[in-house]
């Protein structure tokens, strides 16, 4: 079957209400601006902005916020054929502090976890190149069972799988359950993205890079990308070894929300372009740098292919 879909993104779609004041706690934030949110949603939108064909599989409410979500996705040329609107459950929302570091947030989860298997039939999976999801999406049923089932089918069909291990105990209080579910997903050998903050939250303590890489390699992941904020990026691959790249200096960070999603979109984009791992990291860092300097989606007026891929 012809591969007409570059990235299948499965997981949370929601509304981010991002604080207007920079580096202010949620407690003291007075005003919030509304943005389309959710990590796989961000990847789908970013991928479309890069000229890729992206499909988002997600659930929102049959309400005004759900209408806003679909309208914004269509405006960004994301395929919305597999977005389900629930008549009984409202759209999920998250209040987020605007921060130059890791933002604080308060989640109000409703429809996002109600992803069902009929939203992602075999024939759609067969048309895709990459199957991407998140730890957030795996944290609740029925989305968890749907994603694990469809991930196994994607592996069977020969897709490259991917996951952002964006673990938070506020989203998934049971760490041991999270580790078991991640084990089930990682046996499909996905490309893995995680941050130092994700690791600290998942293990409830600081772990060395060696521990982190050994842990996830032993679960079945060949390629693991650890982002370290201003300290750069370390990638471990079971056959090609370790790669480190320093962070791109940025004079003014306007908002860190979504920077990790931009980074991973850039990495997946590079992989689809058959770039080597080191160049894939560079492309990912360039896209993250653009996002750090902008609030909301990636800006207009940039020829991303020219900017990201050095001639």
Task: Please outline the helices and strands.
Blueprint: E1 5-10, E2 14-22, E3 32-37, H1 39-49, E4 54-61, H2 64-75, E5 83-86, E6 93-98, E7 105-108, H3 122-126, E8 128-134, H4 135-138, H5 143-156, E9 160-164, H6 175-186, E10 191-195, H7 196-203, H8 209-218, E11 223-227, E12 233-237, E13 241-245, H9 259-272, H10 277-292, H11 304-308
Parallel strand pairs: 1-4, 1-8, 2-6, 4-5, 8-9, 9-10, 10-11
Antiparallel strand pairs: 2-3, 6-7, 11-12, 12-13
Helix pairs in contact: 1-9, 9-10
List keywords for this structure.
single chain, 311 residues, alpha/beta, nine-stranded mixed sheet, four-stranded mixed sheet, 13 strands, 24% strand, globular
What would your notes on this structure say?
With 311 residues, the protein is of the alpha/beta class. Helices cover 36% and strands 24% of the residues. It has helices at residues 39-49, 64-75, 122-126, 135-138, 143-156, 175-186, 196-203, 209-218, 259-272, 277-292, 304-308; strands at residues 5-10, 14-22, 32-37, 54-61, 83-86, 93-98, 105-108, 128-134, 160-164, 191-195, 223-227, 233-237, 241-245. The strands form 2 sheets. A 9-stranded mixed beta sheet has the order 5-4-1-8-9-10-11-12-13, with helices on both faces. Strands 3-2-6-7 form a 4-stranded mixed beta sheet. Strand 4, helix 2 and strand 5 (83-86) form a beta-alpha-beta unit. Helix 1 crosses helix 9 (259-272) and helix 9 (259-272) runs antiparallel to helix 10. The chain is globular, with a radius of gyration of 18 Å. The mean pLDDT is 93.
Output the helix-strand order.
EEEHEHEEEHEHHEHEHHEEEHHH
Number of strands: 13
Globally, the shape reads globular
- What is the arithmetic mean of pLDDT? 93
Strand order of the largest sheet: 5-4-1-8-9-10-11-12-13
Strand coverage percent: 15-25%
Low-confidence stretches: none
Largest sheet, strands/sense/barrel? 9 strands, mixed
Straight-line distance between termini? 32 Å
Radius of gyration: 18 Å
Give the class from helix and strand content and strand pairing. alpha/beta
Helix content: 25-40%
List the total number of helices. 11
């Amino acid at each position: 079957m012809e591969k007409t879909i570059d990235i299948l993104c499965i997981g949370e779609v929601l509304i981010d209400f991002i604080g207007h004041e920079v580096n202010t706690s949620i407690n003291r934030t007075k005003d919030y601006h509304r943005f389309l949110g959710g990590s796989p949603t961000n990847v789908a939108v970013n991928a479309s902005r890069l000229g890729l064909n992206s499909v988002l599989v997600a659930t929102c409410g049959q309400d005004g916020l759900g209408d806003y979500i679909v309208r914004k996705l269509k405006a960004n040329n994301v395929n919305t054929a597999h977005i389900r609107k629930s008549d009984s459950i409202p759209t999920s929302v998250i209040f987020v502090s605007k921060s130059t570091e890791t933002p604080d947030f308060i989640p109000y989860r409703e429809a996002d976890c109600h992803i069902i298997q009929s939203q992602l039939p075999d024939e759609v999976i067969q048309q895709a190149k990459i199957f991407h999801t998140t730890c957030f999406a795996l944290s609740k049923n029925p989305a968890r069972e749907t994603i694990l089932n469809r991930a196994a089918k994607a592996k069977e069909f020969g897709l490259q799988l991917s996951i952002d291990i964006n673990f938070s105990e506020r989203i998934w209080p049971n760490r041991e359950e999270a580790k078991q579910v991640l084990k089930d997903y990682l046996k499909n050998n996905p490309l893995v993205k995680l941050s130092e903050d994700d690791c600290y939250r998942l293990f409830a303590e600081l772990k060395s890079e060696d521990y982190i890489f050994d842990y996830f390699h032993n679960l079945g992941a060949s390629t693991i990308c650890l982002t370290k904020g201003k300290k750069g990026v370390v990638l471990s691959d079971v056959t090609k070894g370790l790669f480190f790249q320093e962070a791109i200096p940025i004079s003014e960070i306007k908002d860190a929300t979504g920077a990790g999603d931009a980074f991973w979109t850039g990495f997946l984009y590079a992989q689809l372009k058959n770039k080597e791992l080191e160049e894939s990291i560079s492309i990912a860092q360039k896209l993250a740098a653009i996002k750090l300097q902008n609030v909301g989606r990636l800006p207009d007026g940039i020829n991303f292919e020219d900017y990201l891929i050095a001639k």
